[in-house]
């Protein structure tokens, strides 16, 4: 359940001058990604008002409210594969025969697709009733009615494409480096990174729609099931390109008919029994995996990974471009997502710092899409939260204090674990801490560069360091299953790499002259400088070397930056989204 995608960083020559803020004309152009028009349009969005679904100006919704609203929205939505050239007006007029459309957008992912949200759910049924199963000359179609449709032109007239494009790709590494170097401060850099990489409104909608489409398939067996997104797709820390973690929730199926009748009798379903919950989970996922493989339109590369600690079905949803991990009986992970959603929404610095650290870790190959002995994004996020709990005054409350704010409605026990914490964000007092992002980033590296990992564990429940209960190199207590370590997989050498890089980055950021020298020498500075890969003379950075004169060190650093090299700078494997609103 992690992120694929790497990119190349080429050296930057363009950042001698910081960006000057110019009033841009409002563009209504048919623009292509990567063009000047597109660049300008990207700049048109005032800072802080990007569509994320999580922006500050939106009243802070409870996680469950947000999930329910988005799920209901997704149920009124269809996904349509479109001909390459299409008139948007004709397209909308055609679909409006089935009812008013609330919202739509187009995106490209090996073809042109449209996401169309009707105002009413009945419109979807009406559209499906007017849709046929394709007949093919050479192959046979397995008949399957879903909300994933194809639109064909009856007459092959040459349609003019009149679609407004809004590129939702993360920026190229070069563009990102430019943006970071043009920023006015490190705070500006971190906010820029967040703005460029956070999930867009359209991307979030597509994630909920994909879950809804999978729910339709699973509903063939479990009519009352719900497929809920969790993890970074919904916890406010998702980057464009992150995987889509899904939770097949069968609670309704399990509990529906309890105590509905009066009298002296109780009816129960006749069911098959298996020896354990785990075996039940494996059987359910196995069947759903088969179903996705055989009947799921656009579901390819289905893998059943049933012997994992947390059994899952992994597949690619071709039309959305998402790598999906479907689990069931994983409610604690959903609750963890809810907790992270609260932390991510409480203070605007949290997400900016987490994105900065995630990008930094990815750039230095501290994290990977392949499971292994490395730190995960989830663990990194916990480390940032812990660090922010340790500030004075704290920027984030401990989980225990969120528990004390909980009311009766928030009481929650999952598999014997206490998962109670306040869900209503308005009941949490904002922090009085006013530290800048720049300071926090530097202090993060300083803090973890010197953390006593050999004896202490990280614990966001209490917000303080504790003795490690075992000898795992990195011990981050699972916030809900408190006897577990979420970073048990991390090896000593990976931890050491993290510590070395944290120390090195703290050092780079502390060089007082870095900023000034960089600007005058057209070199990456601040955040851009620490997103560069480690090169031999930086890797050999030691405490001894730290004592060298600052001038010599900076000179070496700049020398190393001059050499031509490539880097894993950011993740860029996301499709392009084209958006319009009716
Ligand atoms: P990215 O996919 O890397 O962007 O982040 P993510 O937070 O979605 O991580 P991932 O896909 O690996 O896992 C999805 C969710 O599963 C996380 O957000 C957690 O809620 C949960 N999770 C992941 N790893 C662990 C773990 O080691 N222990 C526990 N208890 N939960 C985990
Ligand atoms: Mg994930």
DSSP helical segment count: 20
Broad shape? globular
> Roughly what is the average pLDDT, rounded to an integer?
81
CATH topology of the domain at 63-131 and 144-153 and 161-166 and 198-252 and 275-331: Beta Polymerase, domain 2
Protein name: Mitochondrial poly(A) polymerase
Domain RL: 63-131
Region (Disordered): 561-582
Keywords: Magnesium, Metal-binding, Transferase
Write the layout of secondary structure elements.
Layout: H1 36-44, H2 63-75, E1 77-82, H3 88-96, E2 101-108, E3 112-118, H4 122-129, E4 148-150, H5 173-182, H6 186-197, H7 201-218, E5 226-230, E6 244-249, H8 251-255, H9 277-295, E7 299-305, E8 312-317, E9 322-328, H10 331-346, H11 348-363, H12 377-389, H13 399-404, E10 413-414, E11 417-418, H14 437-449, E12 456-457, E13 466-467, H15 492-510, H16 514-520, H17 527-530, H18 536-539, H19 543-546, H20 550-562, E14 576-580
Parallel strand pairs: 1-4, 6-9
Antiparallel strand pairs: 1-3, 2-3, 2-14, 5-6, 7-8, 8-9, 10-11, 12-13
Magnesium ion (MG) binds next to loops.
